[in-house]
Input
Amino acid sequence: MSQDFLVELGTEELPPKALLRLSEAFTQGISQNLKSHNLNFDTIESYAAPRRLAVVVKGLAESTPLNDVINWGPPAKIAFDDEGKPTKAALAFASKNNLDPADLVAENDGKIEKLVYRTQAGGEPTVDLLEAIVQQSVSKLPIPKRMRWGANRHEFVRPVHWLVMLFGDEIVEATILGLHANRETQGHRFHYNQALDIQNASEYASKLKSIAYVMADFDERKTLIRQQVEAEAEKVNGQAVIDIDLLNEVTALVEWPVALLGRFEERFLDVPAEALVSSMKEHQKYFHLVDADNNLLPYFITVANIESKDPAQVIDGNERVIRPRLSDAAFFFETDKKTTLESKRESLKKIVFQAKLGTVFEKTERIANLAKAIAEQLNAPTEPVVRAGELCKSDLVSEMVYEFADMQGIAGYHYAKHDGEVDEVALAMNEHYMPRFAGDELPSTLTSAIVALADRLDTLIGIFGIGEQPTGSKDPFALRRASVAVLRILVKGEYKLDLRQLLSLAFKQYTSLPEGEAVVEQVLNYMLERFRAWYEEQNIPVEVFQAVSAKQLSQPLDIDQRVQAVNHFRLLPEADALASANKRVANILAKVDGDILSYIDDALLEEVDEKELAKEIVEKQQQVEPLFEERDYKAALTALASLQETVDNFFANVMVMTDDEALKNNRLALLQQLRALFFEVADISYLAATK
Output
């Protein structure tokens, strides 16, 4: 037998950015706790709205399953004495299982006769377990900071006001967070500000929606909001830009969504669109509209939590609210344009980048010098990268960025354009922050890429140099993200730059660092280790990366090309045998005392299979040498794969460690050259245990 189970926790308005995470955790917690009691159920459904977290479990078993339990005791031969009376061991077994010693029985456990007690476990009524199951789920919710309210000692993310717990048609006897469970939920704060009885779990969502103006299903509200917003945009031939994070946040703010189209004055379109969008999105939770050419339109869409009889009045109220925000943005923009980015640099001398590393002005000086050195390595013009490096942080002291933090870089671009800076310099103001997050776009120009590298390398060397490198989950300067960004730029941009050299150049920009020059190797190892996660995301086995790491290279582009080649090679049918052979060769050579000959004496080649291997090694050396020069590692390893049969025959028929010293040394030289061929790309012996 089974019943549906409903639990709803009613609260003050929950944090909108946390609602979805809380709902998922609540549902997962209840599901896991039910399973831990071996309670079967058909489906589990989540419900989340601003003032409620709820879960409905369909087809929940009415009791835990019955299981046969066999308790084995001591062997029968020591359980009874010569007179047939129970021994201490038997009496202890009887006491443990609440048995009368006279009822003790013995059975064969497959080996010997033992005392045994058969019973059944389980069969506990589900209703008796639900209070603890819900309590555990509530206590484990991801709430960084809990609060108390009134004289209540209970803690939660927001004050709680009601609790519904139904199993079938019956109220579950339970107390959670000081609330006694009943069947009374609450309707919409304005449309239906009163209690509503829920008779059973199956009517929960439909009754709230049809009577109480509450759409409890988060996904249903989200879908409806998207549809409404898109429909409103079509009224003015626009397209709504629906950011998923904003959509989730708005969905978490309303129980009864109604999308409304508003308008702002076209004069505000002279302000950078990003500032207007930031104001609408971050401060007002509005969706903005664009035309077919992706130009911002003078409209916005707000989602009300009420079905107004006079929507025009609601729209007017929102337009009144947004007007001063946009006016502020326009004022900041016009004010900032009165001074150039060059003149703003002076103010950077008052802003500390890091107490031990100086001011932001000093950082821009280091960025500019490092960018120039990188440009010289790439045979690129130095003037634009130096200029961009000097100006790249100037917008930090602008009114616009002070008010709208997410305009950092974007504001710099617009001010650089206004100042008459060349396009590459202006673009670098914004693009040197790219990529800002995983999967973000990379800088589009060489100038932007160089400044982006210089900025991050300076931070990495500086922070490591004062001993503030990341530990555990703490990474206040986002050095992990900076490291991955550098690697992405170097690899995706196909820049043949050596990371060790770049870090050394960055180190030289500092007059003194407590950690000394050893910091270069420390940062290099830290950064290259970020490749692991990169390749894990590409489903490339860690052994592939380890095979390349054995080369101890420091040029990210070259490392990536080798990793891709080894990953391709490992899937070839010959790969397993050649990897194993390379591992065998490595083990043999590791045991050799002294130097190994650098040449092969053809006169000492006696066996057919060693002659054949020597011949093919020479042929392969000639074949793959131009491929190595072109860094076509994939083609080189594919060509070397044909050595598999010859290598197998060699090991099957040739004794390497022979008593004849000359023969042995010649064969070791042969193996050394074989290994060197593959090691030009990577140490493929790491692949021996994987496929």
In short: The longest helix spans residues 311-336. The mean pLDDT is 93.
